Amino acid sequence: METHEEYSWRGRRVRWSRRGSGPPLVLCHGTPWSSALWEPYADALSSQYTVHLWDMPGYGRSSKDDGHDVSLAVQGELLADLLRLWGGPPPHLVTHDIGGAVGLRAHLLHGAPIASLALIDVVALAPWGSPFYRLVGSHPSVFEALPAAMHEALLRVYVAGAAAGELTAAQLSMLTTPWLGAEGQRAFYRQIAAADQAHTDEIEPLYPTIAVPTLVAWGTGDTWIPVDRAHRLAALVPGARLELIEGAGHLVQLDAPVALTALLQRWLDSQR
Predict the structure, then answer these.
(1) What's the CATH number where 227 sits?
(2) Can you give the pTM of this predicted structure?
């Protein structure tokens, strides 16, 4: 049975869903994505796991209110509180992009217990943040005021650059729709402006203290976060398993769905 819920947290409205039965599993999205990117995987894994999906505030179907802090620090606190809300045994945590930093902060700084950790093309190690991020961070109000058609064109090019191959029209629509309209446009640039490497610099020295089974998985064709980060990260986490997905880019969920599904199934099965 699938349920859809809304959680009120510090004035924010957090949309989340739960499906399936079995050990708990939480899927964490990154930027500029939403939980929709994980939907097919949640469906596939729900026959063996109780799968939780959630949209970070400022993303997807969660609230995008002006003035709300959407930094990695806030998202990490929220995830720790969500895990307490959901209860049950410690979950398996599968993360992507900044979802990795959020999950790591929830575990390392806020004491969220987890059974295992999968870090897939994650933001975790310096340096990160593209020249585009720095430009937006210096002039967020200018980008928020772009004509809608110019914003959509920029957004589509930006999102498409994360994939190793060409995205279908349906995939591009799924990824860009939450960022369209006046509210979505402001939220898109707000979350970029909130990106701060200090939030991973703070936890990077703690990676050698991670004591749960950890998978580091990466698309070898990732141009957003190059694969050298995978080797560095796996070397920092004691006993981490490193898996490379050939030819996949940063959007490994769409570039290599069969390979990623098989990898996650093997990884989670090894934890049972």
Answers:
(1) 3.40.50.1820
(2) 0.97
